[in-house]
Amino acid sequence: MIGNNSLHLGSFSKALSPSLRIGWIRANESMIREFVKIKEIIDLHSCSIAQYTLNNYLDNSFKYKNHLQSLRNAYKSKMENFALMLKEYLPEFIFSKPNGGMFIFGYIKDIDTFKLVQECIKQKVLFVPANQFYLDKQISNEIRFNFTHSSVVDVETGLKKISIVLAKMLATKWANILA
């Protein structure tokens, strides 16, 4: 039962397809009426073809449950591999393994990860510095790594490159401190 002042929402973007852009909301009836008004002001109508396709897919709950379990198994394996490589190639990155999802979130002590990613981009490596998730884009030492789409070889190559860039940044930082 959803309380009068609470709601539960989600999307099928991560479970089925990022381009699907169909979400759901569970709330009391008066809240739903207000959300419908707001949605109609924003975009007038949702894509009927996408909704029809999703509805047909979800009609077979066994198929959807199997799909979700397959994703969970694949993501768990990829996360375990990514976590092992982080410990090997980027021991400065402090993190806890997630219980689910698509990301490993953590931090590197005393490093501005936005500056780090700018240097890593020059080496053709990209990650999301956490300051991108803050409204004020404050300096942050946090990183959110996605482990779901890259191959084992790409993960290893990328983490090695990040490690080299990080080592150079730390050496420069210490040189400036000692100078």
Q: What's the short story on this structure?
A:
The protein is α+β, with helices and mostly antiparallel strands. The protein is built from five helices and six strands, in the order ββαααββαββα. It has a four-stranded antiparallel sheet, covered by helices on one side. Strands 1-2 form a two-stranded antiparallel sheet.
Structure description:
This protein has 179 residues and is an alpha+beta fold. It has two domains: 8-59, no CATH class; 74-178, Aspartate Aminotransferase, domain 1 (Alpha-Beta Complex). 51% of the residues lie in helices and 13% in strands. It is built from five helices and six strands; from the N terminus they run E-E-H-H-H-E-E-H-E-E-H. The strands form two sheets. Strands 3-4-6-5 form a four-stranded antiparallel β-sheet, covered by helices on one side. Strands 1-2 form a two-stranded antiparallel ribbon. Helix 3 runs parallel beside helix 5 (152-178).
Work out the helix count. 5
Q: Which class best fits the helix and strand makeup?
A: alpha+beta
Number of domains: 2
Largest sheet: spatial strand order = 3-4-6-5
CATH topology of the largest domain: Aspartate Aminotransferase, domain 1
Total beta-strand segments = 6
The unreliable regions are none
Q: How far do the termini sit from each other?
A: 63 Å
Secondary-structure topology with pairs:
Layout: E1 8-11, E2 23-26, H1 29-43, H2 48-58, H3 61-89, E3 93-95, E4 103-108, H4 113-121, E5 128-129, E6 142-146, H5 152-178
Antiparallel strand pairs: 1-2, 3-4, 4-6, 5-6
Helix pairs in contact: 3-5, 4-5
Give me some keywords for this one.
single chain, 179 residues, alpha+beta, Aspartate Aminotransferase, domain 1, four-stranded antiparallel β-sheet, elongated
